[in-house]
């Protein structure tokens, strides 16, 4: 298998090389491509893009400890939880949730940021200007200082004004797109497609043969529910403002048709239409029609702002209003868009979230408190109580919950449905320079014809395992001689309770495999059937299964 993989890899690389040779021979650029790049970029290379990518990669590898835990980096302390927690908002714009998240953003950066850097330029384009007249025009400063500084600034802005505890470089990626759309609209769309191609080709080269078996998937929210729409739109508008500033200082305007179509295609492909709300307990609402209307409005606004002239908006018969030009009105509309997108993120980031979890039903790791709870108020969503259009910020949630008063965070890290499906969830806590894993484990018995009774334990690496939750009891549907059997989870153990007409006849712990116990006139035994533990109840020669061990995937 290894030789076959190597052969496929070599063949793919050879085909890419042959394609490049064929293109050069067909187009015969004669050095024109290099001259064009060198006319705007220092040595023809987008150095600012390279520096920015290396910085984001370094954050993942070392700050988030991705070098040691590539598939499970530290993420919780590096989200933007509150203005009162600087570490979060300083790092969140450059941190990532995992390798796939990182790879997607860096790929998009590598295809979009060079367009922005080329449009901005390291070298002055005005006649008679000199590269070393001032530090602002020095190509080395522009390439290695000013461009990366702008990237840092955009990352901080998207973090400071994002709605919710966001994480990721995507806000800056969308800023690159907003800038590029008004300068090179067609190239921006092509870059978006190239990003998709690269995301397919590279994994295929690294792993040319993939074997997959049919299996069920754990409960998960819809794909669009994981998109930070507000953060993406904010980044797009910030990039648009910067792009317009550079564009309007130069002569010429792009084609309105190209800008409109490129903006529309970009917004649709990047799912900026996915406006949604979270109702709690795993329910999401997608306002798709509203989202499409907003995307059309966005494309129109970008187009008007890019091609608007300096002609007065009103009649020239009113000289006092000549300063109100079409361009100023369009740019003002874009700036208002930035304000509308940034405004909702300010108040939630000023509010301190109350953890509401006591140490008696939780484990503590440094400043973190971890517990499991069901049907509790989601304090992250409900930080400000608002009701509108039939929706409310007062939502309920269940699952593994993490809080930290020091970091002003409240997080439902894993849903109760996910834990019920997998039986075990790993949670990585941490901070600058440290991390620790806490494992949440569920164990349950399903009453025949009814629901599952279960316990939840938390096992921190630095301390003993702790029982933190017991569900309610459940009664099996089968009855024997008018007796009912209930599964009772209590104090980390499971008991069988026998009742008749609401009268308790006895209670006993579930026996071990191969053993039997008596309670309430019934004999209980545990046996293994098809790899699963089953508890049977017997009386007078009649035996029925009353409980089955919960199985996880």
Polypeptide structure, described:
The chain is α+β, with helices and mostly antiparallel strands and 553 residues long. The protein folds into four domains: 1-30; 35-210 and 222-349, no CATH class; 355-468, no CATH class; 473-549, Beta Barrel (Lipocalin). The chain has helices at residues 2-27, 32-38, 47-63, 86-91, 99-120, 139-160, 170-181, 185-206, 229-248, 256-269, 288-307, 326-342, 346-350, 416-422; strands at residues 276-280, 283-286, 362-365, 368-377, 387-388, 391-392, 396-404, 409-415, 424-431, 434-447, 452-460, 466-470, 474-475, 484-490, 493-500, 503-509, 516-519, 522-529, 532-539, 542-549. Strands 9, 10, 11, 12, 17, 18, 19 and 20 form an eight-stranded antiparallel beta sheet that branches. A hairpin with a 2-residue loop joins strand 15 and strand 16. Helix 3 packs antiparallel against helix 5 (99-120) and helix 5 (99-120) runs antiparallel to helix 8.
Brief overview:
The chain is α+β, with helices and mostly antiparallel strands and 553 residues long. 39% of the residues lie in helices and 24% in strands.
């Amino acid at each position: 298998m290894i030789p076959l993989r190597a052969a496929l890899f070599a063949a793919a690389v050879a085909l890419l090389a042959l394609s490049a040779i064929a293109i050069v021979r067909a187009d015969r650029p004669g050095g024109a491509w290099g001259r064009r790049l060198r006319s705007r970029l220092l040595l023809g290379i987008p150095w600012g893009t390279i520096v920015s990518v290396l910085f984001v990669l370094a954050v993942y590898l070392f700050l988030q400890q991705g070098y040691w835990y590539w598939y499970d980096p530290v993420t919780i302390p590096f989200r933007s939880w509150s203005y009162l927690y600087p570490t979060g908002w300083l790092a969140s714009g450059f941190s990532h949730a995992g390798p796939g998240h990182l790879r997607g953003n860096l790929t998009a950066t590598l295809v979009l940021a060079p367009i922005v850097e080329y449009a901005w330029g390291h070298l002055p384009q005005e006649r008679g200007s000199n590269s070393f007249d001032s530090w602002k025009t020095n190509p080395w400063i522009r390439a290695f200082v000013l461009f990366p500084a702008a990237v840092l600034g955009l990352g901080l802005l998207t973090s400071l004004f994002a709605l919710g505890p966001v994480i990721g470089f995507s806000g800056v990626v969308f800023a690159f797109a907003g800038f590029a759309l008004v300068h090179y609209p067609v190239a921006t769309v092509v870059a978006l497609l190239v990003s998709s191609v690269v995301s397919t080709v590279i994994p295929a080269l690294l792993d040319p043969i993939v074997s997959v078996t049919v299996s069920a998937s754990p409960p998960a929210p819809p794909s669009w529910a994981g998109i930070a729409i507000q953060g993406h739109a904010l980044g797009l508008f910030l990039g648009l403002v910067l792009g317009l500033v550079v564009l309007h200082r130069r002569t010429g305007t792009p084609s309105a048709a190209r800008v409109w179509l490129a903006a529309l295609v970009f917004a649709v492909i990047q799912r900026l239409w996915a406006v949604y709300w979270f109702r709690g307990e795993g329910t999401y609402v997608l306002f798709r029609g509203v989202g499409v209307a907003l995307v059309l409005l966005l494309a129109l606004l970008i187009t008007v702002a890019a091609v608007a002239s300096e002609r007065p908006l009103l009649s020239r018969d009113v000289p006092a209003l000549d300063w109100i030009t079409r361009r100023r009105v369009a740019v003002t509309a874009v700036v208002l868009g930035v304000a509308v997108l940034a405004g909702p993120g300010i108040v939630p980031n000023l509010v301190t979230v109350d953890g509401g979890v006591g140490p008696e039903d939780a484990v503590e790791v440094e400043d973190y408190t971890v517990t499991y709870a069901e049907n509790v108020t989601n304090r992250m969503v409900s930080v400000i109580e608002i009701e509108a259009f039939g929706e409310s910020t007062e939502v309920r949630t269940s699952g593994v919950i993490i809080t930290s008063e020091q970091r002003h965070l409240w997080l439902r890290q894993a849903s109760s449905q996910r834990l019920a499906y997998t039986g075990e969830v790993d949670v990585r806590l941490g901070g600058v320079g440290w991390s620790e894993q806490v494992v949440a484990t569920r164990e349950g018995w399903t009453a025949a014809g009814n629901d599952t009774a279960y316990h939840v334990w938390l096992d921190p690496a630095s301390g003993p395992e702790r029982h933190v939750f017991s569900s309610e009891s459940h009664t099996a549907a089968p009855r024997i001689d008018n007796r009912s059997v209930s599964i009772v989870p209590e104090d980390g153990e499971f008991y069988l309770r026998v009742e008749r007409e609401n009268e308790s006849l006895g209670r006993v712990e579930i026996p071990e495999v191969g053993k039997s116990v008596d309670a309430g006139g019934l004999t209980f035994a545990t046996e293994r059937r098809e790899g699963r533990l089953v508890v049977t109840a017997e009386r007078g020669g009649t035996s029925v299964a009353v409980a089955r061990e919960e199985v996880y995937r």
